[in-house]
Amino acid sequence: MPPQVLFSKYDVYNVIESQKKRVKEAYLRLPDEEAMDEDAIRRIKAEYMLDVPVLKSDEMYCVESKTKIDVSRNPNRVFFPGTGPVMEDATELTVHIPFEGDPGVFNITPSAYNSRIAQGEVVGKELLLRVVVSDGKYDVQGHIDREVTQINWALTQLREKNAYESQELEGALRQAVATRKRSIESRGNVIGNLRIPLRSSVPSQTPASPAVPHKTVPKPAVSAVPNKSHRWDVFISHASEDKPYVEPLAKALEAGGVNVWYDRTSIGWGDDIRTSIDNGLLNCDYGVVVFSKAFLGKKKWTEYEVSALFGLETVDRKRILPIWHEVTYEDVLKYSPALAQRRAKSSADDSNDDIVNSVLSMLGRPQIATQPQATSASAAVVWPGGKKSVAIAYALYETTGPGAKSVALYVRRSPKGQDRFTFEDAAGEEHEGTRKDIAIKYALADKTLTMSGYQRRNVSGGGEYPEFNL
């Protein structure tokens, strides 16, 4: 996609006027018992304030690729008239700048102007800047610095408008509150002026139908597809080729009490697919995304779903829960560097019960009991190098680049007692202790490895021992 001109689509004052209208509409939808609640009023105001992005410049990185450009119009080159396009090899650098805040703000024009125009592309929670280099003398770093400076200038201008927007939204809300208060008092006066007793409403009773002998009245059919106001705990995004893996996972989640949006059960015959998917995405708490070879092929619906989930995320509210199904870190890195850095479950190392319990934990619900693994050969964890271990909790770590290393941590039950456990550290040394002692050692070892440059690649929680969940 070619770069787009940033900060050019919507005027900031028009945006603020639109937000004032929307905040009043949101307030008017509150029931009477909440309409005079100051906390509810402040919450609505905060929801419609501009969440101006903050660039994480210290986390930016660059991806290099090859391309071709037409140099026939280069003023420093001489070509005969009518020669036509002259294509030469060039290097394209894509600078990825993570940010926190609302991606839509990059479309808003500040009230102040300068002579520079910023161009870029917003993908999820990253701003992409593309630079094509055909001349080794070009100051690429200087170009990137100028672009970032211009973007930060525009964001600063919009940030300063927050004080103005705050006053405008406050005024609109207070006006709506005053009108609502008068309406509530007026209705109270009408009731207070009655000279007859007031009772609570009594449900009307429908006369019973006469009994019909020897006949069974059939129950009305209940639609299997929830209505539009329904909420789901998780939305499963996957490629149709992966149904053999996803179908049992969806059933395991539902058996564990998780409310699942799954296309095969949530899209009814004759339903509009796009509307059904949008309904599921907007009304789910989390999106379980199964990354596979087929998914990484960038299909229409999977791309739409993962982009929507990205757009729904906020700084303090993640939505995407990735599962790697028969793919490697390098496969996911090529698809999305941002998603490759997220901690993921693995279909090879994490059972359906492990995934169900992790989802239940995130939802704040009790975990399900899992089958004991101590005597099961299938429960053996196989790490690179052929090492095997039956563990109640484990984690694999890797470094990247030349000389990459991999290490593992294991927590096992100790044969010396029911509340005794052993911990095998990255050097292969075993430590024995109580549940609390081993949980502390396990967490400290994990922190030491991650601070030393190792990245978690696979991890399994402790099942009935939540203190061993990393």
Outline the secondary-structure elements.
Blueprint: E1 4-5, E2 10-11, H1 12-28, H2 32-35, H3 38-47, E3 54-55, E4 61-70, E5 87-100, E6 108-109, E7 119-123, E8 126-133, H4 140-192, E9 232-237, H5 243-255, E10 260-261, H6 263-266, H7 273-282, E11 284-291, H8 300-312, E12 320-324, H9 329-335, H10 337-340, E13 345-346, H11 352-362, E14 381-382, E15 388-389, E16 393-398, E17 406-413, E18 420-424, E19 430-434, H12 435-451, E20 455-460
Parallel strand pairs: 2-6, 9-10, 9-11, 11-12, 12-13
Antiparallel strand pairs: 1-7, 3-5, 4-5, 5-8, 7-8, 14-15, 16-17, 16-20, 17-18, 18-19
What attributes characterize this protein structure?
470 residues; alpha/beta; 3 domains; six-stranded antiparallel sheet; five-stranded parallel sheet; 12 helices; 22% strand
Account of the 3D structure:
This protein is 35% helix and 22% strand. With 470 residues, it is α/β, with parallel strands linked by helices. The protein folds into three domains: 4-178, no CATH class; 225-370, 3-Layer(aba) Sandwich (Rossmann fold), CATH 3.40.50.10140; 374-470, no CATH class. α1 packs parallel to α4 (140-192), α5 (243-255) packs across α11 (352-362) and α7 packs parallel to α8.
Shape: globular
Counted beta strands: 20
Fraction of helical residues: 25-40%
Rg value: 29 Å
Task: Please report the distance between the alpha carbons of the first and last residues.
Answer: 39 Å
Q: Quickly give the structural class.
A: alpha/beta
Q: How many DSSP helices?
A: 12
| Average pLDDT figure | 79
Low-confidence stretches: 206-229, 371-389
Largest sheet features: 6 strands, antiparallel
Strand content: 15-25%
Count structural domains: 3
